[in-house]
Amino acid sequence: MEEMNTMETQVKVRRYRLLRRIGIVVLIVLLAMLGAGYAFRYTTYDYVHIVKNYESESTDNGKYIQYIDGVLEYSRDGIAMLTKEGKELWNQACQMKSPIVEICNETAAVADQGGTSIYVFQKNGLKGEIGTTRPIEKITVSAQGIVAAVLQDEENPMVMCYDAKGNVLVEHKTSLKNTGYPVDLAISPDGNVLLVSYLCTKGNGLASKVSYYHFGKAGEDKPDHQVAQKEYSDTIVPTTVFLDKDTSMLVSDHALIFYEGLNEPKEAAVVELDKEIRSVAYNEKYVALVLKNAETDGYELRLYRTDGKQKMTADLDREYSNLKVADGQVLLFEENQCAIFNDAGVCKFQGTMEMYVTDIFPVTGFHKYMVINADGFQEIQLAK
Fold this sequence. Notes:
With 384 residues, this protein is mainly beta.
Protein backbone atom coordinates (compact mmCIF):
# COMPACT_ATOMS: atom_id res chain seq x y z
CA MET A 1 0.00 0.00 0.00
CA GLU A 2 2.80 2.40 0.88
CA GLU A 3 4.49 1.64 -2.48
CA MET A 4 1.26 2.48 -4.32
CA ASN A 5 0.95 5.77 -2.43
CA THR A 6 4.56 6.57 -3.21
CA MET A 7 4.02 5.85 -6.91
CA GLU A 8 0.88 8.00 -6.98
CA THR A 9 2.77 10.82 -5.30
CA GLN A 10 5.60 10.58 -7.84
CA VAL A 11 3.10 10.61 -10.74
CA LYS A 12 1.42 13.71 -9.29
CA VAL A 13 4.79 15.42 -8.86
CA ARG A 14 5.81 14.63 -12.44
CA ARG A 15 2.44 15.83 -13.72
CA TYR A 16 2.74 19.06 -11.71
CA ARG A 17 6.26 19.68 -13.03
CA LEU A 18 5.11 19.00 -16.61
CA LEU A 19 2.13 21.33 -16.27
CA ARG A 20 4.36 24.00 -14.72
CA ARG A 21 6.81 23.74 -17.63
CA ILE A 22 3.95 23.96 -20.12
CA GLY A 23 2.55 26.96 -18.24
CA ILE A 24 5.93 28.69 -18.27
CA VAL A 25 6.33 28.05 -22.02
CA VAL A 26 2.81 29.34 -22.72
CA LEU A 27 3.48 32.44 -20.59
CA ILE A 28 6.75 33.12 -22.43
CA VAL A 29 4.98 32.74 -25.79
CA LEU A 30 2.17 35.07 -24.70
CA LEU A 31 4.63 37.67 -23.42
CA ALA A 32 6.58 37.42 -26.67
CA MET A 33 3.38 37.87 -28.67
CA LEU A 34 2.37 40.87 -26.55
CA GLY A 35 5.82 42.36 -26.97
CA ALA A 36 5.73 41.82 -30.72
CA GLY A 37 2.24 43.31 -30.88
CA TYR A 38 3.35 46.32 -28.87
CA ALA A 39 6.38 46.80 -31.09
CA PHE A 40 4.26 46.42 -34.22
CA ARG A 41 1.80 49.02 -32.95
CA TYR A 42 4.12 51.61 -31.45
CA THR A 43 7.42 51.36 -33.34
CA THR A 44 8.07 54.26 -35.70
CA TYR A 45 10.14 54.19 -38.88
CA ASP A 46 12.53 56.61 -40.51
CA TYR A 47 12.55 55.70 -44.19
CA VAL A 48 11.12 53.31 -46.77
CA HIS A 49 12.84 50.39 -48.44
CA ILE A 50 11.84 49.55 -52.03
CA VAL A 51 11.13 45.80 -52.13
CA LYS A 52 10.10 45.47 -55.78
CA ASN A 53 9.54 47.65 -58.85
CA TYR A 54 6.76 46.83 -61.30
CA GLU A 55 6.43 48.53 -64.67
CA SER A 56 2.88 49.10 -65.82
CA GLU A 57 1.87 47.46 -69.11
CA SER A 58 -0.48 50.36 -69.76
CA THR A 59 0.73 53.08 -72.11
CA ASP A 60 -1.94 55.68 -71.34
CA ASN A 61 -1.14 58.65 -69.15
CA GLY A 62 -3.99 57.88 -66.81
CA LYS A 63 -4.99 58.17 -63.18
CA TYR A 64 -5.02 55.24 -60.78
CA ILE A 65 -7.22 54.07 -57.94
CA GLN A 66 -7.16 50.94 -55.79
CA TYR A 67 -9.75 48.43 -57.02
CA ILE A 68 -10.46 44.99 -55.45
CA ASP A 69 -7.03 43.30 -55.26
CA GLY A 70 -5.53 45.40 -58.05
CA VAL A 71 -5.61 48.86 -59.60
CA LEU A 72 -8.04 50.64 -61.91
CA GLU A 73 -6.47 52.98 -64.44
CA TYR A 74 -8.72 55.52 -66.13
CA SER A 75 -8.05 58.20 -68.71
CA ARG A 76 -9.80 60.05 -71.52
CA ASP A 77 -9.16 57.10 -73.84
CA GLY A 78 -10.19 54.15 -71.72
CA ILE A 79 -10.33 52.15 -68.51
CA ALA A 80 -8.07 49.22 -67.62
CA MET A 81 -7.69 46.89 -64.66
CA LEU A 82 -4.15 46.05 -63.62
CA THR A 83 -2.75 43.64 -61.07
CA LYS A 84 -0.59 45.01 -58.26
CA GLU A 85 2.37 43.91 -60.37
CA GLY A 86 1.24 46.14 -63.25
CA LYS A 87 -0.06 43.36 -65.53
CA GLU A 88 -3.13 44.34 -67.53
CA LEU A 89 -6.17 42.08 -67.02
CA TRP A 90 -8.60 43.89 -69.29
CA ASN A 91 -8.93 47.17 -71.18
CA GLN A 92 -12.04 49.03 -72.29
CA ALA A 93 -11.63 51.75 -74.92
CA CYS A 94 -13.86 54.83 -74.63
CA GLN A 95 -13.80 58.58 -75.15
CA MET A 96 -14.33 60.86 -72.14
CA LYS A 97 -13.34 64.45 -71.50
CA SER A 98 -13.38 64.33 -67.69
CA PRO A 99 -13.62 60.81 -66.20
CA ILE A 100 -14.73 60.37 -62.57
CA VAL A 101 -14.84 57.08 -60.64
CA GLU A 102 -17.04 55.64 -57.88
CA ILE A 103 -16.46 52.18 -56.37
CA CYS A 104 -18.63 49.95 -54.17
CA ASN A 105 -17.13 46.60 -53.21
CA GLU A 106 -16.28 44.88 -56.52
CA THR A 107 -18.26 47.25 -58.75
CA ALA A 108 -16.87 50.42 -60.31
CA ALA A 109 -18.66 53.12 -62.29
CA VAL A 110 -16.71 55.52 -64.50
CA ALA A 111 -18.59 58.56 -65.81
CA ASP A 112 -17.75 61.43 -68.12
CA GLN A 113 -18.41 64.43 -65.90
CA GLY A 114 -20.11 67.04 -68.09
CA GLY A 115 -20.77 64.34 -70.70
CA THR A 116 -23.43 61.67 -71.07
CA SER A 117 -21.60 58.32 -70.72
CA ILE A 118 -21.31 55.97 -67.74
CA TYR A 119 -19.48 52.62 -67.80
CA VAL A 120 -20.10 49.95 -65.15
CA PHE A 121 -17.35 47.42 -64.44
CA GLN A 122 -16.86 44.37 -62.29
CA LYS A 123 -13.80 42.21 -61.76
CA ASN A 124 -13.97 40.55 -65.18
CA GLY A 125 -14.55 43.73 -67.16
CA LEU A 126 -17.42 45.76 -68.61
CA LYS A 127 -20.85 44.92 -67.18
CA GLY A 128 -22.84 47.61 -68.96
CA GLU A 129 -22.92 51.07 -70.50
CA ILE A 130 -25.35 53.88 -69.68
CA GLY A 131 -26.23 56.88 -71.81
CA THR A 132 -27.87 59.88 -70.12
CA THR A 133 -30.05 62.57 -71.66
CA ARG A 134 -28.34 65.43 -69.83
CA PRO A 135 -24.77 66.21 -68.72
CA ILE A 136 -23.58 64.25 -65.69
CA GLU A 137 -22.67 66.16 -62.54
CA LYS A 138 -22.24 63.38 -59.93
CA ILE A 139 -22.66 59.62 -59.71
CA THR A 140 -22.76 56.86 -57.11
CA VAL A 141 -22.93 53.09 -57.56
CA SER A 142 -24.17 50.07 -55.59
CA ALA A 143 -22.52 46.67 -55.31
CA GLN A 144 -25.04 45.27 -57.82
CA GLY A 145 -24.20 47.91 -60.42
CA ILE A 146 -27.17 50.25 -59.93
CA VAL A 147 -26.01 53.78 -60.72
CA ALA A 148 -27.58 56.98 -59.39
CA ALA A 149 -26.67 60.29 -61.02
CA VAL A 150 -27.33 63.99 -60.73
CA LEU A 151 -27.92 65.36 -64.23
CA GLN A 152 -27.27 69.04 -64.82
CA ASP A 153 -29.91 71.62 -65.60
CA GLU A 154 -29.86 75.31 -64.72
CA GLU A 155 -33.35 75.28 -63.19
CA ASN A 156 -34.50 71.68 -62.73
CA PRO A 157 -31.67 69.17 -62.29
CA MET A 158 -32.67 65.51 -62.23
CA VAL A 159 -31.77 62.59 -60.00
CA MET A 160 -31.77 59.36 -62.01
CA CYS A 161 -31.20 55.69 -61.20
CA TYR A 162 -30.17 53.15 -63.84
CA ASP A 163 -29.37 49.48 -63.88
CA ALA A 164 -26.00 48.46 -65.34
CA LYS A 165 -27.54 48.00 -68.80
CA GLY A 166 -28.81 51.57 -68.92
CA ASN A 167 -32.49 50.96 -68.12
CA VAL A 168 -34.09 53.79 -66.14
CA LEU A 169 -35.20 52.62 -62.69
CA VAL A 170 -36.01 55.97 -61.08
CA GLU A 171 -36.55 59.45 -62.48
CA HIS A 172 -36.77 62.11 -59.81
CA LYS A 173 -37.29 65.71 -60.87
CA THR A 174 -36.07 68.45 -58.58
CA SER A 175 -36.56 72.19 -58.46
CA LEU A 176 -34.84 75.03 -56.70
CA LYS A 177 -38.20 76.18 -55.31
CA ASN A 178 -39.48 72.87 -53.91
CA THR A 179 -36.78 70.32 -53.17
CA GLY A 180 -33.68 72.49 -53.52
CA TYR A 181 -30.58 71.76 -55.59
CA PRO A 182 -29.11 68.23 -55.24
CA VAL A 183 -25.49 68.68 -54.15
CA ASP A 184 -24.60 65.05 -53.37
CA LEU A 185 -26.07 61.56 -53.35
CA ALA A 186 -25.26 58.08 -52.16
CA ILE A 187 -26.80 54.67 -52.75
CA SER A 188 -26.88 51.76 -50.31
CA PRO A 189 -24.74 48.72 -51.19
CA ASP A 190 -27.86 46.66 -51.95
CA GLY A 191 -29.15 49.36 -54.31
CA ASN A 192 -32.49 49.81 -52.49
CA VAL A 193 -31.99 53.16 -50.75
CA LEU A 194 -30.97 56.48 -52.26
CA LEU A 195 -29.72 59.30 -50.03
CA VAL A 196 -29.76 62.85 -51.45
CA SER A 197 -28.62 66.14 -49.94
CA TYR A 198 -30.38 69.25 -51.26
CA LEU A 199 -29.28 72.84 -50.78
CA CYS A 200 -32.12 75.32 -50.43
CA THR A 201 -32.87 78.81 -49.18
CA LYS A 202 -34.66 79.50 -45.93
CA GLY A 203 -35.48 83.11 -45.22
CA ASN A 204 -32.32 85.08 -45.78
CA GLY A 205 -30.06 82.08 -45.22
CA LEU A 206 -29.26 78.62 -46.52
CA ALA A 207 -30.42 75.23 -45.32
CA SER A 208 -29.95 71.60 -46.30
CA LYS A 209 -32.66 69.00 -46.74
CA VAL A 210 -31.61 65.37 -46.54
CA SER A 211 -33.95 62.75 -48.00
CA TYR A 212 -33.91 58.94 -48.03
CA TYR A 213 -35.78 57.13 -50.83
CA HIS A 214 -36.47 53.40 -50.49
CA PHE A 215 -37.32 51.61 -53.74
CA GLY A 216 -38.09 48.29 -52.09
CA LYS A 217 -41.11 47.20 -50.05
CA ALA A 218 -40.51 49.75 -47.26
CA GLY A 219 -41.10 52.64 -49.66
CA GLU A 220 -43.98 51.25 -51.73
CA ASP A 221 -46.71 53.24 -49.97
CA LYS A 222 -44.66 56.40 -49.40
CA PRO A 223 -44.96 59.48 -51.62
CA ASP A 224 -41.98 59.44 -54.01
CA HIS A 225 -40.73 56.40 -51.99
CA GLN A 226 -39.43 58.86 -49.38
CA VAL A 227 -38.97 57.10 -46.01
CA ALA A 228 -37.14 59.86 -44.14
CA GLN A 229 -36.34 63.55 -44.47
CA LYS A 230 -34.75 66.14 -42.21
CA GLU A 231 -33.91 69.80 -42.66
CA TYR A 232 -30.74 71.34 -41.20
CA SER A 233 -30.92 75.13 -40.91
CA ASP A 234 -27.85 77.30 -41.55
CA THR A 235 -26.02 74.18 -42.66
CA ILE A 236 -24.48 72.90 -45.88
CA VAL A 237 -24.19 69.13 -46.40
CA PRO A 238 -21.82 68.67 -49.37
CA THR A 239 -21.06 64.98 -48.71
CA THR A 240 -23.29 61.95 -48.18
CA VAL A 241 -22.12 58.35 -47.98
CA PHE A 242 -23.14 54.84 -47.00
CA LEU A 243 -20.43 53.45 -44.73
CA ASP A 244 -21.89 49.94 -44.68
CA LYS A 245 -25.19 48.19 -45.42
CA ASP A 246 -27.00 49.89 -42.50
CA THR A 247 -24.98 53.01 -41.63
CA SER A 248 -24.93 56.27 -43.58
CA MET A 249 -23.22 59.56 -42.84
CA LEU A 250 -23.66 63.24 -43.64
CA VAL A 251 -20.65 65.53 -43.62
CA SER A 252 -21.81 69.08 -43.03
CA ASP A 253 -19.75 72.25 -42.79
CA HIS A 254 -19.51 71.82 -39.00
CA ALA A 255 -20.52 68.27 -38.05
CA LEU A 256 -20.57 64.56 -38.80
CA ILE A 257 -24.10 63.16 -38.67
CA PHE A 258 -24.55 59.38 -38.53
CA TYR A 259 -27.78 57.58 -39.47
CA GLU A 260 -28.78 53.99 -38.80
CA GLY A 261 -31.24 51.82 -40.71
CA LEU A 262 -32.65 51.61 -44.22
CA ASN A 263 -36.41 51.09 -43.91
CA GLU A 264 -36.77 54.12 -41.64
CA PRO A 265 -33.36 55.79 -41.21
CA LYS A 266 -32.86 57.49 -37.86
CA GLU A 267 -30.24 59.99 -36.72
CA ALA A 268 -27.96 57.97 -34.43
CA ALA A 269 -25.09 60.32 -33.53
CA VAL A 270 -23.97 63.89 -34.17
CA VAL A 271 -20.32 64.93 -33.82
CA GLU A 272 -20.07 68.71 -33.60
CA LEU A 273 -16.75 70.09 -34.87
CA ASP A 274 -15.19 73.32 -33.67
CA LYS A 275 -12.62 73.48 -36.47
CA GLU A 276 -12.76 73.84 -40.24
CA ILE A 277 -12.91 70.54 -42.15
CA ARG A 278 -10.18 70.45 -44.79
CA SER A 279 -10.55 66.83 -45.95
CA VAL A 280 -12.45 63.66 -45.09
CA ALA A 281 -11.98 59.96 -45.87
CA TYR A 282 -13.81 56.86 -44.73
CA ASN A 283 -14.27 53.13 -45.01
CA GLU A 284 -16.64 50.63 -43.38
CA LYS A 285 -14.93 51.01 -39.96
CA TYR A 286 -13.56 54.54 -39.62
CA VAL A 287 -13.98 58.17 -40.66
CA ALA A 288 -10.82 60.31 -40.85
CA LEU A 289 -10.80 64.11 -40.78
CA VAL A 290 -8.13 66.73 -41.25
CA LEU A 291 -9.11 69.92 -39.40
CA LYS A 292 -7.50 73.36 -39.53
CA ASN A 293 -6.45 74.70 -36.14
CA ALA A 294 -8.26 77.96 -35.42
CA GLU A 295 -5.92 79.75 -33.02
CA THR A 296 -2.57 78.08 -33.75
CA ASP A 297 -0.65 76.96 -36.80
CA GLY A 298 -0.96 73.44 -38.10
CA TYR A 299 -3.71 70.87 -38.43
CA GLU A 300 -5.36 68.11 -36.46
CA LEU A 301 -6.00 64.57 -37.64
CA ARG A 302 -8.97 62.83 -36.05
CA LEU A 303 -10.30 59.31 -36.47
CA TYR A 304 -13.87 58.36 -35.57
CA ARG A 305 -15.66 55.03 -35.44
CA THR A 306 -18.90 54.70 -37.38
CA ASP A 307 -20.89 55.09 -34.14
CA GLY A 308 -19.47 58.60 -33.76
CA LYS A 309 -16.97 57.76 -31.00
CA GLN A 310 -13.53 59.33 -31.40
CA LYS A 311 -10.77 56.76 -31.86
CA MET A 312 -7.67 58.95 -31.93
CA THR A 313 -6.26 62.40 -32.59
CA ALA A 314 -2.84 63.56 -33.78
CA ASP A 315 -1.14 66.81 -34.71
CA LEU A 316 -0.07 67.59 -38.28
CA ASP A 317 2.43 70.28 -39.18
CA ARG A 318 1.28 70.46 -42.78
CA GLU A 319 -1.70 69.71 -45.01
CA TYR A 320 -1.72 66.92 -47.59
CA SER A 321 -3.85 66.93 -50.73
CA ASN A 322 -4.77 63.23 -50.35
CA LEU A 323 -6.27 61.41 -47.37
CA LYS A 324 -7.44 57.80 -47.16
CA VAL A 325 -8.32 55.12 -44.61
CA ALA A 326 -7.29 51.50 -45.16
CA ASP A 327 -6.77 48.48 -42.89
CA GLY A 328 -6.97 50.50 -39.67
CA GLN A 329 -4.46 53.07 -40.93
CA VAL A 330 -4.68 56.67 -42.08
CA LEU A 331 -2.52 57.57 -45.07
CA LEU A 332 -1.78 61.15 -46.11
CA PHE A 333 0.24 61.97 -49.20
CA GLU A 334 1.07 64.71 -51.68
CA GLU A 335 3.71 64.54 -54.42
CA ASN A 336 6.64 62.75 -52.71
CA GLN A 337 5.58 63.53 -49.13
CA CYS A 338 3.78 60.90 -47.06
CA ALA A 339 2.58 60.28 -43.50
CA ILE A 340 1.15 57.05 -42.10
CA PHE A 341 -0.75 56.82 -38.79
CA ASN A 342 -2.29 53.79 -37.12
CA ASP A 343 -5.60 53.83 -35.26
CA ALA A 344 -3.80 54.45 -31.96
CA GLY A 345 -2.59 57.82 -33.24
CA VAL A 346 1.03 56.67 -33.67
CA CYS A 347 2.79 58.22 -36.66
CA LYS A 348 4.49 55.15 -38.11
CA PHE A 349 6.21 57.15 -40.83
CA GLN A 350 6.46 60.74 -41.99
CA GLY A 351 8.88 61.86 -44.63
CA THR A 352 9.95 61.93 -48.25
CA MET A 353 9.47 59.10 -50.71
CA GLU A 354 11.77 58.41 -53.65
CA MET A 355 8.81 58.72 -55.98
CA TYR A 356 5.74 60.90 -56.47
CA VAL A 357 2.77 59.12 -54.91
CA THR A 358 -0.43 58.86 -56.94
CA ASP A 359 -1.96 56.35 -54.52
CA ILE A 360 -0.76 54.13 -51.68
CA PHE A 361 -2.38 51.22 -49.87
CA PRO A 362 -1.31 48.46 -47.45
CA VAL A 363 -0.48 44.99 -48.82
CA THR A 364 0.25 41.66 -47.16
CA GLY A 365 3.48 41.73 -45.18
CA PHE A 366 5.13 43.47 -42.23
CA HIS A 367 4.51 47.21 -42.80
CA LYS A 368 4.42 46.77 -46.58
CA TYR A 369 2.61 49.06 -49.00
CA MET A 370 1.98 49.38 -52.70
CA VAL A 371 2.80 52.81 -54.12
CA ILE A 372 1.35 53.86 -57.47
CA ASN A 373 3.09 56.52 -59.53
CA ALA A 374 3.26 57.64 -63.13
CA ASP A 375 6.02 55.16 -64.01
CA GLY A 376 4.47 52.06 -62.49
CA PHE A 377 4.08 50.43 -59.10
CA GLN A 378 6.50 49.94 -56.23
CA GLU A 379 6.18 47.63 -53.25
CA ILE A 380 7.80 49.31 -50.27
CA GLN A 381 8.45 48.43 -46.63
CA LEU A 382 8.89 50.78 -43.69
CA ALA A 383 12.41 50.57 -42.23
CA LYS A 384 14.39 51.97 -39.28
